[in-house]
């Protein structure tokens, strides 16, 4: 067992604590608490592939990330294997091996607030590791990158951490999101948010143990968009890309509306809004969603004026009426850290409309 060890009064030690239990023993044996090879250690992950074992640790006050080889009995940090995510300020490491590749998933250090998730991959723990890859969406769907599990079906899933009760502006009880992970070739991975996920660890048939239940088909990608606050780069707001922080439409002012013409009328089942994150001044948006058949008269579909979801929010209309135009009406942008207006931080990374 490897744990992050700190004094109760501060966060200054940066030690690991190690304990183990032999199969025949009834109690744990304490193996010590220390800085591994003299390096401070914050968030960490222990990983073994059945033979060898490693410790992955955020170090240099979360600036870099070290991968250590452990002793043959896994109880001692033996050597520094490689340093990864240099000067990237990553934390919450989670390691998994699948289809010949090791994946290291991490979160951008941001306290309790949502942040940009990434992963790197390699065919050996010593590397060479890939360049960092942005995954999911820019705010981990209003959570943080978390632990990764392998199901009996061989599929992977992430339990991302939504620390909403610890946010400066609280957003309800803490909880986890289950994000099914899809793998491609050459160490590629992706995941998405679903309102409902079906899974069973009793299913051993390859590829059949977990799947997301999408709220209809995506109607909005590439459809004409417009706004009351300018049109520069407006096409990126519904181009299907929500994991690139640089892919953002910046309205000229707040309040404003952003509208998608679906070109045909549809029953709307879900609207996702992914918004720009500014490190240290993470924001939430007070807005509502309206729909129209003619672009003139609008009906309320969802009210998010009391929500405080940081970086991402999903709306679920109950109306069975069909609409051609879907409009996001943003009333204000609020800094979750201090509660102040943050119109200067406005930006839409992606609006996704689902329906039939």
From TrEMBL:
Matching InterPro entries: Galactose-bd-like_sf (IPR008979), Glyco_hydro_beta-prop_sf (IPR023296)
Signal peptide: none
Family matches, as Gene3D superfamilies: Galactose-binding domain-like (2.60.120.260), Glycosyl hydrolase domain, family 43 (2.115.10.20)
PANTHER family: GLYCOSYL HYDROLASE 43 FAMILY MEMBER, GLYCOSYL HYDROLASE FAMILY PROTEIN 43
Name of protein: F5/8 type C domain-containing protein
């Amino acid at each position: 067992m490897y744990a992050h060890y700190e004094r109760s009064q501060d966060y200054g030690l940066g030690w690991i604590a190690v304990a183990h239990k032999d199969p025949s023993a009834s109690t744990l044996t304490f193996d010590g608490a220390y800085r591994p090879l003299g390096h401070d250690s914050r968030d960490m992950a222990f990983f073994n592939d059945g033979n060898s074992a490693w410790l992955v640790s955020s170090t240099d006050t979360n600036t870099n990330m070290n991968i250590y080889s452990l002793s043959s009995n896994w109880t001692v940090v033996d050597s520094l294997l490689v340093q990864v995510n240099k000067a990237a300020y990553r934390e919450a490491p989670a390691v998994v091996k699948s289809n010949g590749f090791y994946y290291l998933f991490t979160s951008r250090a941001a306290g309790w607030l949502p942040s940009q998730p990434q992963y790197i991959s390699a065919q050996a723990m010593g590397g060479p590791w890939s360049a960092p890859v942005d995954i999911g969406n820019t705010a981990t769907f209003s959570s943080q990158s978390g632990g990764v599990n392998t199901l009996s079906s061989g599929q992977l899933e992430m339990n991302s951490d939504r620390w909403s009760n610890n946010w400066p502006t609280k957003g309800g009880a803490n909880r986890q999101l289950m994000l099914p992970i899809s793998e491609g070739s050459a160490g590629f991975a992706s995941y998405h948010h679903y309102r409902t996920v079906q899974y069973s660890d009793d299913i051993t048939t390859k590829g059949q143990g977990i799947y997301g239940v999408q709220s209809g088909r995506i109607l909005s990608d590439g459809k004409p968009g417009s706004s009351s606050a300018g049109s520069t780069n407006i096409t990126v707001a519904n181009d299907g890309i929500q994991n690139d922080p640089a892919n953002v439409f910046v309205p000229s002012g707040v309040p404003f509306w952003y509208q998608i013409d679906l070109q045909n009328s549809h029953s709307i089942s879900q609207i996702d809004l992914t918004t720009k994150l500014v490190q240290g001044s993470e924001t939430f948006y007070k807005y509502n969603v309206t729909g129209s058949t003619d672009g003139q008269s609008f009906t309320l579909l969802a009210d998010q004026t009391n929500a405080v979801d940081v970086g991402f929010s999903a709306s679920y209309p109950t109306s069975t009426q069909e609409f051609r135009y879907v409009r996001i009406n943003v009333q204000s942008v609020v800094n979750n850290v201090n509660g102040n207006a943050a119109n200067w931080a406005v930006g839409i990374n992606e609006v996704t409309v689902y329906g039939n």
